[in-house]
Write a structure and sequence with these properties.
It is a single chain. By secondary structure, the chain is mainly alpha-helical. It has one domain. The protein has five helices and no strands. Helix 2 runs parallel beside helix 5. The longest helix is centred in the last third of the chain and has 30 residues.
């Protein structure tokens, strides 16, 4: 699909109040969430400090196929999920330790 065509589709969907990115994310949420949770857990279990956790969680093939706006949304989606899962994992560790 050409860039102009993609932009036209996105503009049309915004005018209709639809969000193509959110629709695609919802389909992937259930499996992606489990995969992301396991990746975050693996990152937190590493001995060394991870300097780029979001980049390590990112699906680079999927990311490269997105428009700039979608890339930004995907990035912030990963940031939110990382913070959520990190908090959950740390709380679970505290419960086990006590």
């Amino acid at each position: 699909m050409s860039t102009i065509r993609e932009l036209a589709m996105l503009a049309r969907s915004r005018l209709r109040g639809e969000d193509l990115f959110k629709r695609n994310i919802r389909k992937l949420d259930t499996t992606r969430d489990e995969v992301l949770y396991n990746k975050v857990k693996q990152l937190l279990n590493e001995d060394e400090e991870v300097l780029n956790p979001i980049a390590r969680l990112m699906d680079h093939r999927y990311y490269s196929s997105l428009s700039p706006t979608q890339k930004e949304r995907y990035f912030f989606y990963l940031v939110d999920k990382y913070k959520l899962y990190k908090t959950e994992i740390e709380q679970d560790r505290l419960k086990i330790a006590n």
